[in-house]
Amino acid sequence: MNPGGLAAVGTPRQPSKRRVPVSQPGMADPHQLFDDTSSAQSRGYGAQRVPGGLGYPAASASPQGAFLADPVSNMAMAYGSSLAAQGKELVDKNIDRFIPVTKLKYYFAVDTMYVGKKLGLLVFPYLHQDWEVQYQQDTPVAPRFDVNAPDLYIPAMAFITYVLVAGLALGTQDRFSPDLLGLQASSALAWLTVEVLAILLSLYLITVNTDLSTIDLVAFLGYKYVGMIGGVLMGLLFGKIGYYLVLGWCCVSIFVFMIRTLRLKILAEAAAEGIPVRGARNQLRMYLTMAVAAAQPLLMYWLTFHLVLRSPAAQAAPQQGGHCSRNNKP
């Protein structure tokens, strides 16, 4: 007897006698039948029936079924996601206008091997021969592939370490306070800002066409914190002799490093422009390079000597305070 005829007459279905199509071994693609929900939707069923589930409805797992079930909410979600994507793109563009995030990623593309080589170059720059920055298709390679490339990772970490070491030095001398530590950090940042602005103004006044950017200046000027950390630590461990020896070595090293690095950025452009070596403009470039390099040892001493070398009056102040407190005891 034809099952379709019985359904047309109105005979009620018997769930126990329903035929399960999956169990038929001769079917070519049994999964296609249950993945296609168009037949169930055309019959007006609210949900797809699970075979062998005694006719109970089950929620559709396909995206098409979910969209057809509630098209308005899905269209609202799609529209909201598109608005969020447009807003994110707009925010990224505005951020890049003021903060060059894409460029900053280049200066933090470092690895452990690069950091070790760079620290060795900052302390022992005398044996290094090739100071040229490598380029690939008119673009400098990432710092992790070239030890001569400037980076911001070492200056940033060195500045944070310098502030921590300054706090340690103040604590060993019973002078630590959050205000004094903040003053130490802000003064170091202020001197760095003054250096960058002075160099940019000097480059503008002597009309130097160079690829030396502001971020490059911050990177090169921030390398002096490495020597400052070494000088303060040796001063805490070995006193004045250790401080002067280590800081003096680091001052000479940073002077040589800055001379050999900046001359390729400033003087190389003059050679490319055909300016004579003994010309007035070229001499100004040489003086600027020497001045920037000579300012690094001076600032290294200025920002560290009060952390290690204390005046006799400052040393006697805690002792006098202790004597007064003992004398005032009842």
From TrEMBL:
Top-level lineage group:
Eukaryota
Listed GO cellular component terms? COPII-coated ER to Golgi transport vesicle; endoplasmic reticulum membrane; endoplasmic reticulum-Golgi intermediate compartment; Golgi membrane
| GO BP terms in the entry | endoplasmic reticulum to Golgi vesicle-mediated transport; protein transport
What residue stretch is flagged as signal peptide? Answer: none
Q: Where in the cell is it found?
A: Endoplasmic reticulum membrane; Golgi apparatus membrane
Is Endoplasmic reticulum found in the keyword set? yes
Q: How does it sit in the membrane?
A: Multi-pass membrane protein
Keywords assigned: Endoplasmic reticulum, Golgi apparatus, Membrane, Protein transport, Transmembrane, Transmembrane helix, Transport
Regions crossing the membrane: 152-171, 183-205, 217-237, 243-263, 284-303
> Which residues lie within the region annotated Disordered?
1-47
Output the PANTHER family linked to this UniProt entry.
Answer: PROTEIN YIF1B, YIP1 INTERACTING FACTOR HOMOLOG YIF1 PROTEIN
Can you tell me which family this protein belongs to? Belongs to the YIF1 family.
Function recorded in the entry: Has a role in transport between endoplasmic reticulum and Golgi.
Q: Please state what the protein is called.
A: Protein YIF1
- Species of origin reads Bos indicus x Bos taurus (Hybrid cattle)
- What's the gene? YIF1B
